[in-house]
Specification:
The protein has about 70 residues and is α+β, with helices and mostly antiparallel strands. The chain contains one helix and four strands; from the N terminus they run H-E-E-E-E. The chain has a domain of about 35 residues. It binds zinc ion. Zinc ion binds next to loops.
């Protein structure tokens, strides 16, 4: 099994991880209910996408935790 010839220095490890940062999710305002939603995703609050309803949103019964 191939093994590295020498230890990777902390600087080199940092260089490798320079592109490993997590990006914040791109949130945009829903045009229908004005709640924040993920860009290019149907709104989880009202189920609208591009000006029409694409999801049926279950209205949770009070006190009942669904799934
Ligand atoms: Zn919405």
């Amino acid at each position: 099994m191939g093994l590295p010839k020498r230890k990777v220095s902390h600087a080199r490890q940092g260089d490798r991880r320079a592109h490993a940062a997590l990006a914040t999710p791109k949130l945009v305002e829903c045009s229908h209910c004005h709640q924040p939603r993920l860009q290019h995703h149907a709104c989880p609050n009202c189920g609208w996408y591009r000006g029409r309803q694409v999801l049926r949103i279950k209205t949770a019964a009070p006190g009942a935790s669904e799934r």
